[in-house]
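Quick log. Single chain, no ligands specified.
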Amino acid sequence: MRSEQAQSERPAASRRASASAARRQGTARKEAAPATETEEGQAITAPHTAPHDVVGTDPALEAAPSEQQAPSPAPSPGGKRSSKSSRRAPVASNRRSTRNATAADEAPRRSSRRANTADPGKKRRDMIIMGSIVGLLLLAGGLALAWPGIRRGMLLNAIDAAGEPAAAVAAADDYLAYVDFNPGHVRSAIGAQRGPIEAQIHLAQAIASPDDLIAIGTRAGLNDDQRAAAIEAAAVLIDDDITSRAYLDDDKLEEWALQRDRSDKHKDLAAAATHLIAARGTDNAAEVFAGVIQDPAAHPDILTAAIAHLPAVLSASNVGYGLALITGPNNDRVIASNALLEAITVNVRPAHIDRIFALLDHADVHVQAIGARFLHGNGMTMVSPAEQESIGERIMPYLQAEVRASKPELFAEALKATATLRLTGAREQLVKLMSEVPADSDDAATIAACLGRGFPRKGAQYEALNEDLLAKLTAALAVPASRATAAAALAQWPIRSMDGLHPALEAAVAQNDAGMDAAIHIVAELFERDDVIVKLGRDADAWQRFLPADRLRMEQFAAMQTFANESRGMRTTAGGPAVKAAKKQCTEYQAVLSQWLSPGSKQVMPLGLSTTMVKKLQGEMGIAMQQIVKATPAL
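-> predicted structure:
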C-alpha cells in the first residue's frame, strides 16, 4: 500500500515542481511584457515573444488548439479531483497557446476593422442621394418625351377656349407654329373638331388641304355662312391643284348651287358651290351652270358666279349648252361676258354650223354678230374643201355693202370668218366688194388677202378656178374703184406657171406706180428673175419698153419648142431644100438658146422661163439637129 502511494506521490511532486517552475517563468515574462488594455478596460499582459513567435505560429496549433492541451486526469475513485499541481500545468500551457494564437490573429483582424471604419449612416445617405438623382433624371426624361404632346394639348385647349373666331384663328396660328405645320398634327386637330369652324377652316387652309375643307363643309350642323366659307376655300385650293380626292356628292353640290327649293337663297353658298363644281370639273358642270343661267329668277350674284365659271368647263362635247344661252332669258348677261363667248368660239365645230347660222338670222343684231364670230372659231378650221364652198355660199348674204353700212359688226365678223375658213364659195361676192369697199380700209385689206393668197389652191383640180380668179383680178386693175385692191391681191398671188401671169404683169405695169408692187412680186417671186428687177427697178417706162420685147422672146421660145418636136420625124424624103432650111433654122435657134444661158448677154431669157427649162430645150434642139443631119441627102 505504502509503496503504491509513494509511487503515486512521486509523480505528483514532480508535477508540482514543474508547475512551480512554469509559474516562475510565466511571472518573469509578465513582468517583462507591456500591459495592454482590453475594450472592457482590463489590463492584459501580453507574452513577450519575438515577432516570429507570433507570425510564425504553427497553423496546426491555430487550427486545432485542443490537440495542444493535455488530457484531463480522470477523477479519483473517491470522487476527488487531482491535486493542484496535477491540474494547473496543462492549463497554463493551454493559456499560453491560446494567447499566442490570439496574438497571431489580432493583427489582420484589427487592420481589417481599421479599413472599414466609415459611418454606415453616411453610406446609406449616399445611396439615397444617388437614387434621388437617378429618379430625377428619369423623371426629366419622361417629361421631355411627354412635353410635346402636353404642349400641343395646351395649345389645342387654347383654341377651344377662344371666344371669338378671330381669337381662335390667332390661337390656331400659335398651334401651327408649334407643330411647324405638320399635316398629321393639323389633320388630327381638324378631325377632333378642336375649336370653332373658322379655326378649323384656317388650319386646313394652312396645310393646303381641300379634302379637309370639303369634309368640314359637309358636316351636319353648320350654318350656311360656315359651309360657304369651307366650300369656297376648298374651291380656291383645287383651282391650283386638282388632285383632291375628297368625295362630295354632285347632287348635293347642284342643290347648293341652284337652291331651287330655298326661298331664302344663300348666295354665298351658291357661289361657293358653283366655284367648286368648276374647280372639280364634274361631268354635269356645264349643265348645272346652264340651268342657273337659264333661270329667269336666278339671284344676280348666283348668275354672275355661274357665268364666270362656265367657261372653265365648256368643251366640244357640251358647248351646245353655251350656244343655247345666247338666246336665253339672261342672254344680255351672257353676251357681256367676253370670256364665255371666247370659250364657245373655241369649242364649236362644223357639226354646230346649223345652230350658228340660226343665230345669224336672229332679230337681235348683237346675236347675229356673235353667231358670225362663232364661225371663225378654232374648231371650225377643220371644215373640208366642200364645206368651204357650201358655207361660203351661205355667208354671202352677210357680205353685202348694205350690211357693212348698217351692221358693221356683223359684216366684220362674217368677213373674218370668210378669211379664216377660206370660204371659197364667197369669191364672187368678194370680187364685187373690191369696187364697193374703200381701198384704204381694213375690210379691203382682208378682201385682198382672201382673193390673192387665201383662195388660190394648188392642184390640177383647181387650175380652172385659179385661172378664172386671176383673170378677174387682172380685169379689176382697169377699174379705178377696184384697182388698188386688185393690185394688192395680185401682190400676194402664190401660184406659179400660169398662163394668166404674163397678162397680169402687163396690166399691173400699165398702171404705173399703182401696180408696180404687183409687177415686182410676179417677176421676183413667181418668175424668180431678180436680174430683171435689178436692171429695171421701179421705172415704169423701162418696164413698158421691156415687156413687148419679152413677149416676142416668149413667142420665140414657143416656136423653138414646136420646131424641136417636128424635126424629130424629119426624113430624106423631105427633100434637099427643106432639110437644108431646117438645118439653118436649128443652128439659129441653138445660138439664141446659148445667148439666153450666157451670163451678161444682152439677150435675156424670157420671163416665166427657168434655166432648167431653157437647157432642156437646148438638149431637144441638139437631138433635132442630129435627125436633120441624118435626113440630109447624100451629095
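Residues 1-22, 26-108 have pLDDT under 50 and may be disordered.
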